[in-house]
Amino acid sequence: MTSGTDAHRWIMTGVNQPLVREAFTATPADGEVVVAVAGCGVCHTDLGYLYDGVRTNHKLPLTLGHEISGRVAATGAGAESWLGRAVIIPAVLPCGECDTCRCGRPNICRKQAMPGNDIQGGFASHIVVPARGLCPVDESRLERRLSLADVSVVADAVTTPYQAVLRAGVTPGSVAIVVGIGGVGGYAAQIAKAFGATVVAIDVDPVKLDAIGRVCAELTLNAREYDLKGLKAKISDFCKAGGLPLTEWTIFECSGTGAGQSTAFGLLTYGATLCVVGFTMDRIELRLSNLMAFDARALGNWGCPPELYPAALDLVLDGKIDLASFVEQHPLDSINQVFELAHAHKLTRRAVLVPQH
Questions:
Q1: What is the pTM of this model?
Q2: CA-to-CA distance for 213 and 220, rounded, in angstroms?
């Protein structure tokens, strides 16, 4: 076992309160590791905790951040083989031992640990986490445009939609409609494309629509320019012109907004699959009977099992997902300013906070 490490982290003390830096000692217990954080992505969920009053499972004060990559700097007994290795920490760590885990449903493990929610998170110089489920990163495969810090966003922004695409059964010839293509949605679009789908992207930000159109979307639609009927007509006309199916669309709601959820549900067609990936506290009115009438289905998506991480990471390392064009690094010490910019929708790329070791 290696000893404790002097470290610092930024803690949330209350809703709408500035995050505060504090020193601590990172000491691993048996089966745990200390990871020197290379980067931690800023997620919509983090903003929900700080600004919207979404409650964390761990009482405040708490360090947020669940998209984490880094290098193992210290280990507890039984985890020595991880020392010095580059890793991505899964955003949700199931226990691996309960009935739900053994039955193949680790996403609903009641003993799961989510950094920045159940345990201290990654907006820090170091983090202590269980060794189980860590995803190794082969740094020799990182292209010149990517760093270990950049691939932190694989831990949620890539793996969560990866699981959604798998669950939805996207295959070559599918039509994938992504509502909200900032952050998670941008990667959902790219993953669906990698699985052979024709991608339709819907958003309210023309800059983001232009960016995703250059990468993978064959049709981009600004939701400010069409009502729901108009959006559906545009997609139908596009499918007819391209000989694509008018049924069994896969619709990914990634905006995490009430408006986005209403749009996604309204795009249901015969045999469609609605995948809810984004989170919002907003409530919306809908007619559930549409699921019955269209013989459609709706799937929730919480995190991603650690065993799926290597395949999702491979899509990035093989160049099938353009990650570098959609992330930007900021010093960890600028966390309060970066959170404010993200909350005000003034960032065009996903922010990755990088500590100074």
A1: 0.93
A2: 6
